[in-house]
């Protein structure tokens, strides 16, 4: 089956710093999504981005489907950005294949 | 507000005591599914439903049952819970197939003693 690799696995930032998270796929990308799992365990939709670039406030994402990767940019990070970031691709029937996640800690 | 609602959010139970985790969505989505999240194993699909009265197994269906009698509801049933079903459970809904975004509920943290 498809393999999803996320990097880096862990990231520690000082508040205000920028960062880039990466997601690589072993197969073609169908319906890529980025999620943030906050410290309370909730999964928050960040982007639905099968291709192209989208921005939402301090966050933006780019998917290059032909090269099987996606990037999530976080600018001017805040402590509330802490948590785990997942990318996932829909393989049909609501079946998302998730990466292992990037655990982000933003310190004041 | 568009949302997926799960209940209960937290539950501690004992082995063998039947329980149901409810899930309801107000987005008129055809597709609904259940996932469990475990340390080191990530999120794995338990069951999914393509429409009313249509359900099928995901990757880890053992020990679970589901039903889809109404479009908005997709309960997860643990007939005889065991400690290895201690997990964080998520319900999700979406437009389905290869066409759309998936939305998750807030999660239900279940502990089976």
Structure keywords:
heterodimer, A: 108 residues, mainly beta, five-stranded antiparallel β-sheet, globular, B: 113 residues, seven-stranded mixed β-sheet
Fold topology:
The complex is a heterodimer of chains A (108) and B (113).
Chain A: E1 4-7, E2 10-14, E3 19-25, E4 33-37, E5 43-48, E6 52-56, E7 59-64, E8 69-74, E9 83-90, E10 96-98, E11 102-107
Parallel strand pairs in A: 2-11
Antiparallel strand pairs in A: 1-3, 3-8, 4-5, 4-9, 6-7, 7-8, 9-10, 9-11
Chain B: E1 4-7, E2 10-13, E3 19-25, E4 31-38, E5 42-51, E6 54-57, E7 65-66, E8 76-78, E9 87-94, E10 102-104, E11 108-112
Parallel strand pairs in B: 2-11
Antiparallel strand pairs in B: 1-3, 3-8, 4-5, 4-9, 5-6, 7-8, 9-10, 9-11
Explain what you see.
The complex is a heterodimer of chains A (108) and B (113). Chain A is mainly β and 108 residues long. Helices cover 0% and strands 56% of the residues of chain A. In chain A, the strands form two sheets. In chain A, strands 2, 4, 5, 9, 10 and 11 form a six-stranded mixed β-sheet that branches. In chain B, a hairpin with a 3-residue loop joins strand 4 and strand 5. The interface between A and B is medium-sized, with 21 and 29 residues.
Number of strands of chain A: 11
Helix content range of the residues of chain B, please?
Answer: under 10%
Mean pLDDT of chain A: 93
Low-confidence parts of chain B: none
- Global mean pLDDT of chain B: 93
Count the beta strands of chain B: 11
Elements of chain A, N to C (H/E) = EEEEEEEEEEE
Largest interface: A-B, 21 and 29 residues
Separate helix tally of chain A: 0
- Gap between N and C termini of chain B, in Å? 36 Å
Task: Summarize the main sheet of chain A.
Answer: 6 strands, mixed
What is the subunit organization of this protein?
A: heterodimer
The topology string of helices and strands of chain B comes to EEEEEEEEEEE
What does the main sheet of chain B amount to?
7 strands, mixed
pLDDT under 50 segments of chain A (min length 5)? none
What is the count of helical runs of chain B? 0
- Over all CA atoms, what is the radius of gyration of chain B? 13 Å
Give the helix/strand class of chain A.
mainly beta
Apparent shape of chain B: globular
């Amino acid at each position: 089956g498809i393999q999803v690799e996320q990097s880096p696995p862990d990231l520690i930032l000082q508040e205000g710093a920028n960062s880039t998270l990466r997601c690589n796929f072993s197969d073609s990308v169908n319906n890529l999504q980025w999620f943030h799992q906050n410290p309370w365990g909730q999964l928050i939709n960040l982007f639905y981005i099968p291709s192209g670039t989208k921005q939402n406030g301090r966050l933006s994402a780019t998917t290059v489907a032909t090269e099987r990767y996606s990037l999530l940019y976080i600018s001017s990070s805040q402590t509330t950005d802490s948590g785990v970031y997942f990318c996932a691709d829909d393989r049909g029937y609501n079946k998302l294949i998730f990466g292992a996640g990037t655990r982000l800690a933003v310190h004041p | 507000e568009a949302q997926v609602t799960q209940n209960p959010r937290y539950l501690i139970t004992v082995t063998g005591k039947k329980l149901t985790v409810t899930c309801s969505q107000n987005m008129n989505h055809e597709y609904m599914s259940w996932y469990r999240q475990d340390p080191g194993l990530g999120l794995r699909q338990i069951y999914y439903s393509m429409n009313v009265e249509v359900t099928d197994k995901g990757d880890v269906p053992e020990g679970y049952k589901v039903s889809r009698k109404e479009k908005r509801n997709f309960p997860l049933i643990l007939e005889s819970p065991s400690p290895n079903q201690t997990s964080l459970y998520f319900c999700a809904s979406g437009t389905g197939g290869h066409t759309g975004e998936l939305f998750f509920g807030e999660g239900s943290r279940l502990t089976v003693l």
